[in-house]
Design a protein that fits this description.
The chain has four helices and two strands; from the N terminus they run αββααα. By secondary structure, it is mainly alpha-helical. The protein has a domain at 20-100.
Length: 122
């Protein structure tokens, strides 16, 4: 059995990765010049030695929307960036506003009574 020739696919993947890295490097370098090296969510500060952990997040989730003034970007650490994208996926999947729906159930509603010993009276 002859093994499939994957050179075409390998070239396509390599070209796509190169194009992504070139585009990302362009706006990343601009964002790092525009903004202080601080995560916009957790406020963790970065320096040259750990700068690879600071990413550029596109506020509108459109990686092709890169205005020169950086108004569509915010710097986020890799953890906060991952969390932001997960929140976006959940918002798209389940609906609701970007900050999430208001909770209608309070799981701690009876806690005060339990702590005060009201459960013993029942």
């Amino acid at each position: 059995m002859k093994s499939p020739d994957t050179r075409k696919l390998d070239k396509l993947v390599a070209d796509a990765r190169a194009a992504y890295e070139k585009r990302a490097d362009g706006y990343r370098q601009r964002a790092l010049k525009l903004y202080p090296w601080v995560c916009g969510r957790c406020m963790r500060e970065f320096e040259a030695s750990n700068l690879r952990e600071l990413t550029v997040h596109h506020r509108d989730h459109d990686h092709d929307n890169n205005p020169a003034d950086g108004s569509n970007w915010e710097l986020l650490c890799v953890y906060c960036h991952d969390n932001e994208h997960q929140r976006f996926v959940e918002q798209v999947t389940y609906g609701g506003n970007e900050r999430g729906e208001e909770a209608t159930h309070n799981p701690f509603e009876a806690l005060r009574g339990l702590l005060d010993g009201e459960s013993d009276k029942a």
